[in-house]
Amino acid sequence: MPDLTVRSVDSVILDVPLIRPHKFATTTATAQPILLVTVTTEDGVAGHGEGVVPGGPWWGGESVETMKAIVDRYLAPVIVGRRVNELPGIMADLERVVANARFAKAAVDVALHDAWARSLGVPVHDLLGGACRDSIEVTWALGSAPVGEVLDEVEGKLESGLHHSFKLKMGALPPDEDTRRVAEIARALDGRASVRVDVNARWDRFTALTHVPRLVEAGVDLVEQPTPGNQIEVLAELTRRTGATVMADESVCSPHDALEVVRQGAADVIALKTTKVGGLRQSREVAAIAKAQGVALHGATSLEGPVGTAASLHFVCSEPGVNHGSELFAPLLLAEELLTEPLRYADGRLHLPEGPGLGVELDPDAVKRFTRT
Ligand code: MUC
Ligand code: MG
């Protein structure tokens, strides 16, 4: 029997450049910071997890720097000396020491799953109950950029055959101008690609009631989180009144949030990020709640690197409730993939890797090159 006792929990910050700037509503990322957490057992088996937020603390208040402090100082002492197969108990104990901090806890949850699965010689999806699919469709996301720039990038992607749907970030421009920009793009792609938008909670109720119908009329297929995350009744009103397919993102950061969204009929789809909800175990709870009310699930991303993306991929491939595709594209946005064998994107889909744990192997030289000093 392998010794499953955790010998150490370590973390380093990586800064991985992007292939092009990614413009969000309030910030532009040129590199993605990743907190790489490593859980090592007494047998020397190492499992990895990533603490990642989309481009910085603007999204949910956490950053790689806050996550590093939380993991090193408060979470690691609770974990060292315990066995990786005590995961449910460990995660419950972490709640007693640190409130919220879900992105940081997700990094630890994934590293524990990876170390446990590697110790047993099985893939992580086996620990989640087994796989129901071996790949998932991947939407490509574009930052808030001018029409010509967006269309050039989309045409290139359509030609490559890798992506057939596109998520456009909104919220950086005044709403009128932003809506005109997106409407022009949606009309240019009519019948050739699915266009979705993410407003990242930047509009108030009246702005959303004014502009969401215009987006729908222009052919936008899905509108993600137009209004503030905690205003669930406003999201519900938009879902009822605008005719848009509405996806909740910032509104669902926990199973309880998911319960509120489904109770109020606030969204057609929930963007499920394994990061923002605190890991793979919490993701299963969110999925169970969505399924119980017939709400669709999308395999969403916080722009995880290859380890975090592989973790989300194992999750979506083990959860039949994820029935609205994914946006697990971020490794393709990184200038380097950090792995000895890249993740396999083909036929518009990301394919589940084989092998124990997450099924990906980090390239130690690449990790060293991007480690923040
Ligand atoms: C978000 O809010 O959905 C996902 C893709 C992207 O461009 O930003 C992220 C964050
Ligand atoms: Mg979003």
The number of distinct β-strands equals: 13
CATH superfamily of the largest domain: Enolase-like C-terminal domain
Shape: globular
Query: What quaternary form is this?
Result: single chain
Helical residue percent band: 25-40%
- Rg from C-alpha positions? 20 Å
Count of distinct structural domains: 2
- The topology string of helices and strands comes to EEEHHHHEEHEHEHEHEHEHEHEEH
Strand order of the largest sheet: 5-6-7-8-9-10-11
Distance between the termini: 38 Å
Number of H- or I-type helical stretches = 12
Listed once per kind, the bound small molecules are: [(2S)-5-oxo-2,5-dihydrofuran-2-yl]acetic acid, magnesium ion
- The SS-based structural class is alpha/beta
Report the sheet-strand fraction.
15-25%
Pfam families: MR_MLE_C, MR_MLE_N
Keywords: Aromatic hydrocarbons catabolism, Isomerase, Manganese, Metal-binding
Organism: Nocardiopsis coralli
Domain Mandelate racemase/muconate lactonizing enzyme C-terminal: 147-245
Describe the 3D structure:
The protein has 373 residues and is an alpha/beta fold. The chain has two domains: 6-121 and 365-370, Enolase-like, N-terminal domain (Enolase-like, domain 1); 127-362, TIM Barrel, CATH 3.20.20. It has twelve helices and 13 strands. The chain has helices at 64-79, 87-97, 102-120, 124-127, 147-160, 175-188, 205-217, 232-241, 255-263, 280-292, 306-318, 364-370; strands at residues 6-23, 28-41, 46-51, 135-137, 140-142, 165-169, 194-198, 222-224, 246-248, 269-272, 296-299, 344-346, 349-351. A seven-stranded parallel beta sheet has the order 5-6-7-8-9-10-11. The protein has a three-stranded antiparallel beta sheet with strand order 1-2-3. A three-stranded antiparallel beta sheet has the order 4-13-12, covered by helices on one side. Helix 10 links the parallel strand 10 (269-272) and strand 11 (296-299). Helix 9 (255-263) packs parallel to helix 10. The longest helix is centred in the first third of the chain and has 19 residues, at 102-120. The radius of gyration is 20 Å and the shape is globular. The site of magnesium ion has 6 residues, from loops. Its cofactor is Mn(2+). This is Chloromuconate cycloisomerase. Belongs to the mandelate racemase/muconate lactonizing enzyme family. It comes from Nocardiopsis coralli. Residues 147-245 form the Mandelate racemase/muconate lactonizing enzyme C-terminal domain.
